């Protein structure tokens, strides 16, 4: 990767930032666009921000871009602060009863599974956890693990499109088909997916799908979307109830009205997303509008190559097939097996303070110490080679 391309980001040059997957990193031009939107808002706050004035057309422009990118109808898309916000809105709106079962997986994002448990506890429902293996050799293992946990009481499933701790792509189309064959609703937490994977919600047909703009789309923080199938839109309420619940003029439908106006908020992170999409699409021209295929393929190839360097240096078998990877990859480190949580945290601090790496170091379970690498356009293979050298040379 050329230095000129890395210069599009503000990232510190003395740190190898291999952690795009956590919070993303926003390019300079997107930050400038965000500031420009803020300035326009503050120049004329009422005209800019009031939904009945000029805010809604601005939101709809971004909504249309997102809908086109994920192959969904624009009226089915609402904006949320992040994927956790989207999961909360859906699960806390479900008409649950005592005895119902909600299914999650052990690879789920903790914040979202916490939201599921909260909703279940309030009505006497039960949360069932499907234990997905890791290391993993084939996506069929995921299907089998989920199918084994389904019962006549299963009402709703939450799965990740790309798992946060293990970085594997789940076979979402097949899992949705499995759920619908049992008359079970299913939600996909796609926090990592937009900008990492091609999305076609018309093909996948989930009941609900939520994702972040700030990760692989490189948008500003506190911006994401929630897709809800038309049949369930009247049921889903945002986490903040505001004027749109019973006022006209806040959107084309009650679903849109509820989410368009959570009260006074800063829409700049949403509005700057069009600049982020244009920037990413322009990294590998020529390309169609919002077609990030070349960038996604390049990031995938880079993370696969980076993982291979580390696996070879440490003589580790691959923990997941390359076909189940997008732009992040998790590697269990044998030398960290049976380490305590405190010891694992100390390793992460050492890699940061002494070796200048920023990446997640964590315990996947009680005995499996792991690291996770990400690949974005500003990364280079040399960074993973340096990490592999450190991992191989330091006595852990």
UniProtKB/TrEMBL annotation:
It comes from Neorhodopirellula lusitana. Residues 25-387 form the Aminotransferase class V domain. This is Isopenicillin-N epimerase. Keywords: Pyridoxal phosphate. SUPFAM superfamilies: PLP-dependent transferases.
